[in-house]
Each structure stands twice: as C-alpha cells, then as structure tokens.
Amino acid sequence: MSSLLEVADLHVNIGGYQILQGVSLAVPEHAVTVLLGRNGAGKTTTMRSIMGYVRSAAGEIRWRGERLQGLRPYQVARRGIGYMPEEGHLFANLTVQDNLAMVARKSASYESRLERALTLFPDLRIAWSRRAGTLSGGQKQMLGLARLLVAAPALMLIDEPSKGLSPGMVEVLAGALSVLREATTILLVEQNFRLASRVGDHFSVIDEGRTCLSGSMEQLVARVDWQQQYLGLTATREEV
Amino acid sequence: MTRHTRQFGPLLLILVVVALVPVLFGVGGITNLLEQVFAFALFAMSYDLLIGYTGVVSFGHAVFFGTGAYVVGIFLAHSGGSSGGLLVGTCVALGMSILLSLLIASISLRIRTVYFAMITLAVGQTFYVLSGSQMLQPLTNADDGMTVPLPVWLTHDRPVYYFSLAVLVLCLVLLRLFVRSPVGLVLQGIRENEGRVLTLGHSVYRFKSIAFVISGLMATVAGILYVIAQTFVSTGVYDVSISLDVLLMTIIGGIGTLYGGLLGALIIIVAQTEFTNLAGTYPIFGRYTILFGVLYIVIVRFMPRGIVGTILESIKRRSGQEG
Asked: Least CB-CB distance to B200: which of A92, A93, A103?
C-alpha cells in the first residue's frame, strides 16, 4: 500500500526545548493511522509541523513525494491536507452555514458534499443559522468534521476529536469517523484507546518526541503488554 | 413578515424619507449637510470593511479619501468643470487608488497589524505634506486649496443631492454583497483568527489585499462625493484628523455592521456642524472634540458593538428568545 505522507526522523525545537527528536511515520492511503502517546509526547507538534505551523530543525516531511517543509500552512492545505486541531478550529462569531461555506472554492460536487455532511450530522441542519460559538462541545466537533467532509481533502489530520465529549457523543463521533474513512485518508491523534482501536487501521506511538512503535492496529490490540508499556493503559482502563 | 422584509423594510423606509428631504424641506442648508453625511457615511463604511470585517486598523485611510477629492478636483478645475473631466478624473482617481492600495499592501500587510497602522499613518502624512507643497502648486494650488467647478448638470443643489444619494446607495449595495460573498466570509474569518483561515487553504495576505483595495476604492468614491458636495478641496482632506473622525464614526455607529457608518457619520457631521455654529455664541462649544473624546470612551466602555451593533444584537437576542 502506497504512503500519501511520510515523515522521516523529524526534529523540532521550540523555545530552546527539543520537542520532537526523531519522529518517523508513514500514512498509507485509504486508511486511518492513529498517532498514540502519553500527554506531551509530541503528537500535536507532529501535526502542526506537517501543516507548516511549526518549523522543523531536521528530518523530512514528504507529501506524495514532495517535500512540505518551507511551505506556508495555506499552501500545505491547498495540496489536499485538511487539519482539525484539538480546539479552536471554528469561527465562533460566524454561523454554522458560514463556517461550512468558508472552506471551499465551490465546485460542482460542493452541494452533494454539503448534503452528505448534513445527513451525517443532522444537528447542524437544525443549528444552521446559529453562531458556532454557541454550539455544544459535541456539536462543535461535528461542525469541524463536517467542514473537513465538505472540503474533501485527500488527507485529514484530526487532533483529539473526542476530548471533553460525553460517552454518547464519542459514539456519534466513532460513527462519523467510520464514514469519513470511507471517503479519505486520516491521520488521527487520539487518547481514547477504545475509539482509536475501533477506527484505526495502523498506529504509531510517540514517546518523549520519538517514534517508538508502529504497526497495524490489530497487533496493538492483541498486545496488552505494549499498551501498558507505551500507552500507560491498564486492563481496567481499556475496558472503560 | 419575511426575514427580508424585517431586514430591509426599515432601511427602505429611511431611504424614502431621505429621498423626500429636498421635497419636504427644500434645498440648501439641510441638503448640503446631508451631502456631506453621504460622503462620510461611505467613507466610514469603507473603513468598516477594513476594521470591522477584516480586523485591520489603518490610521491613514484619508489618503484614499483625499486622492478621490484631489484628483477629481484637479481634473474638474483644469477642464473647466466638464463632464469629461469628472469622468476621466474619476477613472484616474480609482486607478491611483488601486495602485496605491496594492503598493501599501505589498509593503505592510505581511507584517503585524500595529506596524501596518503606523505605515498607513506615515503614507497619509506624506500625501498631506505633498498636497500642500509648493512643488505641486500648479496642480493643487498648495495650501490655499482650490475651488472646483462642476458640470452643468451638477450645478444645482437637487441633482447633487440625488446623485450623491444614488452613489451612496449603490456602494452600500455593492459592499453588502461583498461582505456576504465567499470572499467576505473569509475576511470575517481573518478578523477572528488568521491561523484558522490558513488551515482552510486561504492566503491571508491575498484576502487582506483584496479588502484593502475594495476599501480604498470606496474611500476614493467618498472623496469624490465630498468634492462634488463642497466644490472645494484643500490639504485638509489628507489630514490625519479625517482618518480619526472616520474611525470615530465607525466605532460609534458599530463596527462590523456596515450600516453603523451611516449613523456614525450622521451623528458626527451634524454634531460638528451644530457645535461649530454654537461656538459663534458660546465659545465653549468650539472645544467639541473633547465631547467627542468622552463620547468615544462611553461607547467603547458601554456599547462596544456601537449603536447599530447593539441594536442588532438585541433584536437577534429577542428573536432567539421568541423562537
């Protein structure tokens, strides 16, 4: 299976600290790759480096063979990489409609993509004229995902979409991610291992700024010792 | 009642009343005052596009207003007040405005907002000094300013009034369409958070430049309306106080509303005129800028969305409660 995105030995320094010290990962096409790791391991910094928000000190980020470093974030986005950060991805004072309309140079398929997004997230149709800032946490995540669906990038970078959501909303989110994965390739940062294992095909674990383990999600699910060693999971927590 | 009727009904009513002013009150003092209001209302709306919709602060927006007034003034003065002079002058002024805004954008829009504001202030002051310089005296009449003859069809008060009103309404409609367009939405996104707009694949610099060019064009048209209303132009049109006045009009009316500029211009121009008249009898009113300062503080403190913004917000809240 060919890789859309390849990150090789990525190093990033921020404010004199070495945040990433050798992150490597490959994101295969038409699959969900989950980036796992403890808090502060460097998962979000990896995402921001790919998007061009953070300058790398060494290593390579290649998109379909093209080096991404040196491009501005909007140029990275135009190459077909959509990004939904952990929080603050919406325009709070604009309506749901406006947040969705902003993504696109409208194409012939825009209306059908919009319709698909609204079918997947019917709450957004009801909240169509409401300001995004007034939505609930779950609705905000739905709007962020709907915007990605409307933009239809070749790769979606999604950073901790389940953070702060109720168990019910996490279920809705899992369903939405399952639909998204049929349409595109996803690189997902997710702390909720249960969700990650449900939607993921592949995984990479980052620990202290380095990639320490990669493979198929099936392997990780089968290896409780890996889960304990690299993710700090206990059997009890996994079952929750 | 449909949403459009609710939204545009009051505006249409105001437009009808304003259009009837010359019929009801005759021409002269009140129509001359309103012609000034029309010019500054358009100027304030052009500024609102920049500060209210894009989040870019300029302290030298008078450079566009002044260019519109001066260039058309020069062409009219040197063509003996011909329609051709007005037409060519307008085209040259708009062309200069585009070039000037692109030039300023290219050197200053990539940097932080505060430096952009400083650069616009410097450019504005440069034009202020240039317009009064002896070197350009044959063109501008330097510090003395110049009287501007108008084409025959604009030599009476009523045609000038309706011409100014028609241009204002046309520009308002165009601005309204612009801010509701996909480009306008991206500009509003930039105002909220530039980083998020980048994530969507939009070049912030390009969109800010578009906003700056459109805003500059509208301010130039405002300057043209001003010179037609005043039939006189002087270095004052480039003065930084004009930029500050329009900032005050926009903030009092309500930033990010467009219509706020109309109300802000009405309040400030009428107040300036009335205070100046009163100052003849009561010199204290000559210090009206102090009152404007107090008004500015009160609005920013208690109505940060301005008058129109606060009203719109309250209507929205009430309709939300009813719904």
From this structure: A103
